[in-house]
Amino acid sequence: PHRVSNTSASLFERGQAVIPGGVNSPVRAFGSVGGTPYFVERADGPFVYDVEGRRYIDYVQSYGPSILGHAHPDVIAAIRDAATRGTSYGAPTENEVRIAEEMTSRVEGLEMMRLVSSGTEAAMSAIRLARGATGRSKILKFAGNYHGHTDSLLVAGGSGIAQQGLKGSEGVTAGAIEDTIVAPYNVVPEIDESIAVVCVEPIAANMGLVPPAPGFLAGLREACDAAGAMLLFDEVITGFRLCRGGAAEWFGVQPDVWCFGKVIGGGLPMGAYGASREIMSNVAPLGGVYQAGTLSGNPLATAAGLAALEHLTVEAYAALAERAARLQEGMQASFDAAGVAAVLPRVGPLLGIFFTDTAPHDFDSAKAAADNGVYPRFFHGMLDRGIALAPGAYEAIFPSLAHGDEEIEATIAACAEVAATL
Ligand code: PMP
Fold first, then answer.
1. Could you check whether the bond before residue 189 is cis, i.e. omega within 30 degrees of 0?
2. Is 83 helix (H, G, I), strand (E, B) or coil?
3. Annotation marks residue 151 as catalytic
4. Which of 262, 317, 367, 375 is catalytic?
5. N or C, which terminus of the chain has less Cβ within 10 Å?
6. CB 330 within 8 A of CB 412
């Protein structure tokens, strides 16, 4: 159905009058690629449809949550069914127990967890837990890693912060970051006994896709153990997308604390943090680390998340990785044929793109590749051909299980056309 009354341009104009930049998350404003964002009317499987009736093969997929594709019938049925029984109670439910059982059974070493409402909240809570459990103040993060918009974690953040060329954010006090140490990604830093926790994206996916160098994660594990610091894997993107057990399974390195988001909410707002039973025993009401939430464990979100997880079998991950591999190979061949310098880093189902000769390994090399001016031209070339990529070079490419042969082929064909114009 095609509504003629609204255009993306008219909605963007109205939006800008009442919402900063017209958007509720900065990357969506098209600031780094130019032009007018498409306003979405609906989405279905691999597609989003804008308010002007245009259809796009969607590789944004909400930046990761909709791993089954948009509006998967089982997820929608679960949400519908849950909604008829009320949308929030402020009392515990069976589905909260079920999703915690499901997640802890998949991730080795994850014994207890708490549900929250976003990845930001999950990372923030995990850090409070690590500080409370160790009695230490300092945290270490890596340049180009993004852990949500908590004050102490914005410094040298990837994603939209990097895209806007910001080092952090105004409004964050010096006090809020005086206990944050920033180190270059992919180099094991010096860790001393003042550090409570080392936070890492086990595969960096907010400065484009930058895989961990061999030995990096194992090196962090060793250095943390030597200093009595905790290791936190931020699996908001990798969790339940990379494979059943996440980065710990993939790389054979186990953190002390995890945070999750995106996939586990099946497209509804949900995050989680967790650890061993011993560490989680510090969380109130068992211990003194306070953390709470009116909408935590929301019944729509747990229903959606459980429905999504049910589809995420070993076979599903293999299928998703196979799709990502075909995109990687087909797009790489298109760029090679057109003589365009491009690399598409991939780890299983996780895929990224940089217009450069050699794959970046840290924030500096990622920034040099992301900001060289090619991505915006590629982005708009693809968008013109009905392929929606993230409107920023610092984001990953998110194929879903709904992307079939036809969509993959169409994407590669469009890529070949656009490559010839670069
Ligand atoms: N950590 C990582 C690794 C992320 O990619 C994100 C969001 N892209 C977050 C944390 C924050 O999650 P949210 O946007 O749900 O607050």
1. no
2. helix
3. no
4. 262
5. N
6. yes
User: What whole-number distance in Å separates Cα of residue 373 and Cα of residue 371?
Assistant: 6
Q: How confident is residue 166, by pLDDT bands cut at 50, 70 and 90?
A: confident
> What confidence score (pLDDT) does residue 158 get?
87
Q: Indicate the helix (H) or strand (E) that contains 259.
A: strand 257-260
For residue 5, what pLDDT is reported? 79
262 classed as catalytic: yes
Mean of the pLDDT values across residues 288-316? 98
For all residues of the chain together, what is the average pLDDT? 97
| Residues in the chain, overall count | 422
Backbone angles phi, psi at 409, to 5 degrees: -60, -45
Strand order in the sheet with 55-58: 40-44, 47-50, 55-58, 387-388
**Would you say 335 and 124 are in contact if contact means Cβ atoms under 8 Å apart?**
no
pTM of whole model > 0.90?
A: yes
The single residue listed with the structure tokens 């852990």 is 147
Residues with CB under 6 A from ligand 1: 63, 118-120, 123, 146-148, 159, 201, 206, 234, 236-237, 261
User: What spacing in Å lies between the alpha carbon of 119 and ligand 1's midpoint?
Assistant: 5
Q: How far apart are the first and last CA of the chain?
A: 35
Rounded to 5 degrees, φ, ψ at 283 are -85, 135
Read off the pLDDT of each residue in 269-291 and give the average, rounded to a whole number: 98
Burial of 36 (0-12, 13-18, 19+ CB in 10 A): middle
Would the pLDDT of 353 be above 70? Answer: yes
Whether 367 is a known active-site residue: answer: no
Query: Alpha-carbon distance 133 to 150, whole Å?
Result: 20
d(CA 212, CA 37): 33
Question: 3-class secondary structure for 366-384?
Answer: HHHHHCCCHHHHHHHHHHH
Which residue do the tokens 């996916």 mark? 205
User: Which residues is 220 bridged to in the sheet?
Assistant: none
Q: 271 alpha carbon to ligand 1 midpoint, in Å?
A: 9
What is the share, in percent, of the chain residues with pLDDT greater than 70?
Answer: 99
CB 147 within 8 A of CB 118: no
Query: What pLDDT was estimated at residue 2?
Result: 53
